[in-house]
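Our platform keeps sequence and structure together, in a single record for each protein. Such a record has a labelled line for the sequence and another for the backbone structure tokens. Nothing more is needed to write down the fold, since each code stands for a local backbone conformation. For reference, a complete record is included directly beneath this paragraph:
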Amino acid sequence: MRKSSYRVAAGLAVIALLAAGCSSDKAAEDTAATEETVAADPQLEIFTWWSSGGEALGLAGMESVFKTNNADTEYVNASIAGGAGVNAKAVLTSRLEANDPPDSFQAHAGMELDGYVKSGKLEDLTDLYKSEGWDTIFPADLIKTLTVDGKIYSVPVNIHRANVLWWNPATATKAGITAAPATLDEFFADLEKFKKAGITGLALAGNGDWAIAHLMDYILLASLGSDSYEGLFKGTTSWTGPEVAAALKNFQKALSYGNKGAGNLDWPDAGKLVTSGKAGFFIMGDWASAQWQSEGLVLGTDYTWAPAPGTVGVYQWLSDSFTLPIGAKHRNAGLAWLKVCGSKEGQDAFNPKKGSISARTDSDPSVYDDYLKAAMEMWKTDRLVGSTVHGVNGNNALMAAYNTAVGKYFSGGFKDNAGLAKDLDAAYMAGQA
């Protein structure tokens, strides 16, 4: 588990330390000097994988808040396209190894942070949390996922839900489906209805592996239940045991209802199959809603949603967060960015466009759409379970091997369930190394 606390060597934290042994006049001089240093930072380089659709619009919302507060600092958006950050993380690793970090970079809350912390790439932000009041405004359980050895290493900007079922109401009506399936049995029965109506049952995106792994991660949760699913990452549920074997049969069955040529599609392309009436269901995180709204589609008319079958009452979550790399060229600008990321103003400018809910407990529900309002309530009451593909349950080594294992299985015609189970077990072990 993680634990953490950030060293803010420049800025107000340093001033607070100096003030303990200095006169009030000297403290005032230090404050003025620090403010001058912050203002002198000419640039801020932000590194993300948010390059299009709702994610880019959400980032632009926070950028606007930053520019209002930091008019003299040039904002540089160094985004790298690629679903779930697969491409961005490769570039980021190269930059960190070359001691050329951006001023702040995106990382999922959870075990994904461990590798960066253990390799000495991130500053401790615990003092920043205290000075900004985030230690009381962010949920305690969320802070735990950002913490390594008692120190906090990133600032969460949102909460996403991974286990969401999306569909087009008009297409469902054509297939005789009038209500969302609540169980896996109902899910498969509805996929069969789509098939009989001449409609592809399940939209799949196989380009890059992660979206198929996202589907499998949900199927594992729906098949095993929350406790046994979490046991996979605690060593109490066997990856090669009968529970996973049964879950992989469900995964195999679901894939059989997928679209042809899925290996060439990214997730937005697969989503369009649903919104255009060419496919029935889509299992994808709630960022899909923001993508569709950025394309002019209307929630409740052009598409709708429900908790993914078999996981009603379970919120499979992930959180995007921002870090302060050690050696950032514009450290004070990085700190100023993190303050925007953690602020109510910044989060409420970002999340309605990103398709996520605020990580803060005091966000303004009135600026969020009906789906996000419902998600806010479910976040408070549902059983919370982390997403594997999006960094909560495993580090980057586990995620990379997990995605590769599923991609191999999918490209091979999804036939070798035993082989997939062994590869998933190996992925888990890679994350323990």
In short: Residues 181 and 187 are 5 Å apart (CA to CA).
